[in-house]
């Protein structure tokens, strides 16, 4: 009887694991900063962003699938920009379209990240 209960419990655990939705991990500021580190020279001096920069922009956008993730990325960008001397706002604003990545809000220190919804 005890062996049968263990088998039933194990089967139920497997069913729950298979049926449960996957746990999505939130994007971290460390990931955002790592993705966008190749962009620092562009953000200071303009010109053409390197391919690694545009790949980082794409990775960041693709990783932020939920509204809270997108708001977190926005806040991370603002904090990171405040810590890197010499970042010019015009280059930050131009980065997504230059990399052919659509972001439906303005990249700016004045952006209210809490207002990002989608």
TrEMBL record:
GO terms for biological process: lipid transport. The keyword Disulfide bond applies. Pfam families: Tryp_alpha_amyl (PF00234). Keywords: Disulfide bond, Lipid-binding, Signal, Transport. Residues 1-26 form the signal peptide. Transmembrane segments: none annotated. Residues 29-113 form the Bifunctional inhibitor/plant lipid transfer protein/seed storage helical domain. One of its GO terms (molecular function) is lipid binding. Plant non-specific lipid-transfer proteins transfer phospholipids as well as galactolipids across membranes. May play a role in wax or cutin deposition in the cell walls of expanding epidermal cells and certain secretory tissues. Belongs to the plant LTP family. This is Non-specific lipid-transfer protein. It comes from Acacia crassicarpa (northern wattle).
